[in-house]
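Protocol check, entry for the methods section draft. Step 1: assemble the input record (protein sequence plus ligand SMILES). Step 2: submit for complex structure prediction. Step 3: store the structure tokens unaltered in the notebook. Ligand used here: zinc ion. Step 1 record:
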Amino acid sequence: MAGSSDVQARPAASGARHDHGRCIDAALARAAALCARRGARLTSLRRRVLELVWQDHAAVKAYDLLKVLDREGGQTKPPTVYRALDFLIAHGLVHRLESLNAFIGCPAPEPSHSGQFLICGKCGDVVEFEAPEIAAALETEAAARHFTIVRRTIEVHGLCAACTGAGHA
Ligand SMILES: [Zn+2]
Ligand SMILES: [Zn+2]
Ligand SMILES: [Zn+2]
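Step 3, stored output:
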């Protein structure tokens, strides 16, 4: 797919060995910088929720976040956690994957975008990519139908290279 690129700069699938601690550190640093620039408050709960969403490259369910936060004590009421997620989503730091009813950290929150995702049904790995031609095609088709797009998140389900043994890392 010419013109498209993995938003996520990392070696192949999450199954592949890489220093994921660096992914988490980078995500938290990005979030801190973005919030500082926007005058938004990255509270300790919002930061912790983001960190948990980034625990690996698979999508995380709110239920699992709640379980961990509950174990840790503190502000763990579900509405509080959902508000933290809403904040992270509003700032583009986290995407909601409707088809999984789960959340995934965004490796490149700016500029704001709806997200295009390849979701592995076996290992759960999620890769976000950005193919401008897909977005352009949707805009064209929608405009032809006088349809106003509110959100155009694309969630594609299948098997990643690691799971099909087609890895070329
Ligand atoms: Zn990683
Ligand atoms: Zn994204
Ligand atoms: Zn996989």
